[in-house]
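Researcher: Before we compare anything, I want clean individual predictions. No alignment, no superposition, just each chain on its own. First chain goes here; please echo the sequence and then give the C-alpha cells.
Model: Echoing the first chain and its structure:
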Amino acid sequence: MLAVEEISLHPRGDLLCRAATHWRMSGSSATCFLCDAVSLHPAAHLFAWSGEAPKQAAVAGLCCDCWRGDDPTAIDEAAARVLQQVVPGGCFLDPRAVLP
C-alpha cells in the first residue's frame, strides 16, 4: 500500500500511476476497501501485480477518513482480504521494504 504522494517514487511508478488513474475514473465502483464509501480521491492505494515485467496492476483505494483513522490493524486485515481475492495464497510485501 502506498500513500498517494509515494506512488511516483516506486520503481514501478508509471504502472501504478496508470492503475490508480484508471481506478479513479471508474466512478461509483471506486470505493474504499475498508469502509466501502465512494472515494474518488483516496489517501492511499493498495496495488497487486504478478511477474517481473507486469503490464497491468490491480488497485484498490483507501479513503482519507480510514487512512487518518489510525487503525493499522484494520487496514492490514482489509488489505489482506483484498489481496487474497486477487492473488490467492500470495506473498504480500510492504513496498517500502523493497524500494532501492
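Researcher: Okay. Second chain, same rules.
Model: Second chain and its structure:
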Amino acid sequence: MQALLDASETMALLKDDAEIWAVATALASRFGAKALNIGAGSLSSGELLWMRSNMNNAWLDDYVSQGFMTLDPFVDGATRLQPVSYRGGVLTRADAGSTAAFELNHQIHEAGYGFCYGTPFAGSHPDDGGMVVLGFDATEADRFSPARRAEVHLLSTVIAAAVPPPVTARAAGMVHLPGTRLTRREREVLLYLSDGHGNEEIARRMGISEATVQKHLRAARERLNAQSREQALAKALRMGLLHR
C-alpha cells in the first residue's frame, strides 16, 4: 500500500509524459506484472482509439498486423466499462468460435502473458471508456484470489489516474494502430482546422489550393474512418495524433 501511495504522489508531481510512463511501468513490475497496457475505446462504436503498452515488440507487431484489436476482450471491456479476466492458451478451436480468437488466445500465451486482468475507467471524453490491463505469466491465474484482485484493481486505478491520454503519436509506449498514421500534410490541415480556420485560410497558410486542402481532409477522414471533417478532427485529437 505504501508503495502505491509513494508512486501516486511521485507521478502527480511529474510533468514529463515519458517519466510518468516509466514510473507506472516500474510500479506494475513491482506488483508482479510482466506488462502494463492502457488504452481507450469509443463507447458508441466499440473502436479502439489509442493504446500504450510495454509488452514485447514482437507480440505487439503480431497483435496489430493480425488485427487482434477487433476481437480483443479488453477492448470490449473498455467500451462496456466492465472488468475482464483472461487466461491465454486454454481455448480449443471449438470454444474459441473463430480462428482469429483461437490464435489470439494461444499467441498471447506463447508471448509470455498467460494471464491478464483489466480494470476499466471513465475516459477523458464522454464517449471514451478506458482500461488498464496488467499482463502476468500463466501461474498468476492460480493465485488470483479476491484479495489479489482487489490489490490489482487498486494498482490499476492509481495508474489510470496518473497516466494521461496521449497528446502525440510519439508518446511513450504508444502502439501504432491501423488508421492512426496521418501524413504530414493531413496532420497540418487538421491542426489549422482545430484553430478554427476555413479551407480558404488553410490554403493560404499552407501555400496550396483549396482543392488540395479538401483532398487532404478527405484522405484524413478515410484514414480515420470518420464521416465528416469535424469527426475526423475530434478523433485525431482524442487519439493524440495532432502535435505542433
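Researcher: What stands out in the second chain?
Model: The mean pLDDT is 90. Additionally, Residues 146-162 form the longest helix (17 residues).
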